[in-house]
Amino acid sequence: MINTAAVVGTFVVLAIAGISAAIQIRHLRASNQLQILHNMYARIHDPAMHESLEFVYYELPKRIVEDPAYLDGIATGEARIQHSPLLVALWNDEIGYAVRHGLLSEDGIFELGAGAPAILRCWKALEPLVDAVRRRTPAAYANFEYLAGRARHWIERYPNGKYPVQRAAPEPVRAEI
Question: What is the number of structural domains in the chain?
Answer without folding.
Answer: 2
